[in-house]
Amino acid sequence: MKRTFALPGARPQYAPDRKFDIEHYRIEVDLDFETRSIRGSCTITLAPLARGERLVELDAVELDVSEIRLAGKSDTGPLKFTNDGKVLRVALNAPAELGRSFDLRVEYSATPRRGLYFVSPDEAYPNKARQAWTQGQDQDSRYWFPCFDKPHEKASSEVIATVPEGMFALSNGSQISDATRDGRRTQHWRLDTPHSCYLVTLAAGDLSRTAEKWRDVEVTYYVERGREDDCRRTLGRTPEMLELFSKKFGVPYPYEKYAQVFVSDFIFGGMENTTATTLTDTILLDERAHLDRSFDDLVAHELAHQWFGDLITCRDWGQGWLNEGFATYSEYLWREHAEGRDAADMERDAWRTFYMAEDSSRYRRSVATNLYHAPIDVFDHHLYDKGALILHMLRTYLGDELYWHAIGHYLRKHRGSSVETRDLARALEEATGRVLDWFFDQWVLEGAGHPELEVSYAWDAERSAASITVVQTQDTNDSTPVFRLPLAVRFRVAGEGDQDVRFELAEKRQTFFFPLSREPEQIIFDPGKPTLAQVKFEKPAPVWQAELADATAAIDRIDAARALGKIGSRRAIDALARALREDSFWGVRAAAADALGAARTSRARQALVDALPATEHPKARRGVVRALGSFRRDDDAATALIGVVENGDASYFVEAEACLALGRTRADRAPEVLRSALDRDSFMDVIRQHVYRGLAEARDETALGLLVEATSYGREPHGRRAALAAAAQLARGRTDGPAQQLREHAEELLRDPDFRVQGAAIEALGTIGDPASVPALRATIERELDGRLIRRSKEVIRDIAEGRSHNQQLATLRDEIDQMRTDATAMRERLDKLELALEQASESGKSGKDKDKDKDKKKKKKTEKKKDK
After folding, report:
1. What are 13-30's pLDDT values in tens digits?
2. Which of 25, 179, 461, 826 is deepest in the core (most CB within 10 A)?
3. Pairing state of beta strands 371-372 and 202-205?
4. CATH assignment of 313-445, given 1.10.390.10, 1.10.260.40, 2.40.240.20, 3.40.190.170?
5. Which of 125, 130, 106 is nearest to 31 (CA)?
6. Is residue 344 within 8 Å of residue 359, measured between CB atoms?
7. pLDDT, tens only, 604-639
8. Which CATH class is domain 18-205?
9. Where are the domains of the chain?
């Protein structure tokens, strides 16, 4: 049974009433880096939406408000107010006059715990940049200025920030002024386009500026001095993205500038503040990392939000897929444009994997839901990845021309407003004539989960027709329906090429007949895999081999590779080895490598070892070394991996993957060789991360102390988190002294200064599964910090209480399953050898019979000659 998304105590959340329309925020803030505090004033322009309103309520969390008054000519002195630390209630001296706006000026100070963050060097990290930055999503702007902190309220804004001389302060819109006085620098920014207050931004630091133009729009990049080359490597394709999205979306980029700023210790990958995106500086690519890594997906995602999220905004966070689904799908659009459809389809396949893992292991929910504790709860793989997959299905159903015409209409119709799913559905209907309520009901609003399909094929020679039977096997209930699915099947008939036939599945079981001139060589169900579904399609091995060899879409060749890896026969291995050597797309070559790893036969291992030095594309080479890790206690696989670890690789990521794979082989030399790689610095500490994981996979219990040491404050943050996860894996199910010490250490890290290390500590405690950690997890919840930490702590507590944590029994079961796979592989190899021997014997027998026939013919000829004589 699937877990439910809503945790105990969750209640439906609705957008709150708007008694006043907020027209403008003027935020003046002075940043004190020594005390990590601010002094500010916020002048809010409001207009009443009903007669007689005398009470203004604003979100203001932990703001120390000193005075509130009406600004300008209407100033009648200080106003009475109450402030409970969460909501600021201001009593007007007289009822607000309908149709007339007024300015309310709030003087305050704060030492924000959220919303606005200070970053400074310390003894452990002496080279860290000195910066301050804000992060308003989902509702944290209230921690640094008083506001109506909900997405359906939009206002223009201006930020006047005072920082130490030598710093630069960036905000939304255009710069109005820049002045320095008495060692303090004040910069004034203004955006006249209304936007939600979670999108108001401030980022300050010693920043270098790079500028270029796209059409008439200024495009700027801000980064810590000395990282300019890395910045250009990471962001250099932004103007091309602006051009692509402006054309695709049917609405040109809607603002006067687009800035991107890199900051340290950012708590997300990026944030789409209107006209000024904030990005984590961990994605700045050095030259070696740039060889086979880009963050174009993140850059494209945040840029696309300027349309989907900023220009039009979800009405409430339960409808957040309208922001995040479109932004995530824009990653696909960019990759499709820059690298081709095959690469884009691989990215989409990864989204499918992420979503299905969440659906199977955490919870199942409808994409649009208002049942949650905090809005951040819904920012998950359902919102991002499933949301994007839904849009791809919609695009496939409508076709490109209709789809993009409709999206342009949707953007133009709702420009500047807040939307919900029904607004998208109505706009699509207006633009295309298609009534899509059924689609949005089953995929977004009411339905949850996805179809699970069993497909079978048969050929009717008398009728010269192919039949496809499709059965929906998912458990159906109030939330998971029998799906209505527009589908296609692709037949390849010799000499006739691909034939795509469309049909619609609407029942639990249906059979479809397709007349063909002859039996097809390929039968590809859902070609290109646009449908979000789990599909089980049993086909003869020769058909899979034919599809791996030359199916039109790479994603279908990848599907064939996975199927052949499960079959694992000698011919399947040979087909995979050929694809690994010869396929035109690196993604298929990597998938063939993975499939060879899944087969685990000596023939498969030899194919991988032979391919390793000849595989030029680093992403395909990464697949080869990853697959070699599947061969447990295999000297040849381990030797090949040791060569990569000891000699290094041009790619950080291949070298790192080899470290993890070596650990997975559990070769005797693995721990020693892995330790030798611990001194290698790399992008995001990726090599050490994989060394730590490799030591855990090798079951090197002597590494526990080393891993705990690697979590120390002052070490590289990515490595710290990986070391903690690896240590927890080694301690899983153990109750001895070292395991208990690790649990206590992880509990201490729940208060680490690094937010992401806190998250890693929660995951580590979940892995260890000791009920003794529950009080520490409850204390994390009570501190009311980031909502992601709160929700995950609740889930881990629930898992521990239900005995669902990873324990030693589970680890033992995995080992037993692994041994069963090894035994099955050995049996399959013996059968392959027997089959080969029988084939050779058969050939030998045929050859012998042919020789006997020749002898008989010769004897007959001699006899005939004698008779003639």
Report:
1. 999 999 999 999 999 999
2. 25
3. unpaired
4. 1.10.390.10
5. 130
6. no
7. 999 999 999 999 999 999 999 999 999 999 999 999
8. mainly beta
9. 18-205, 313-445, 810-869
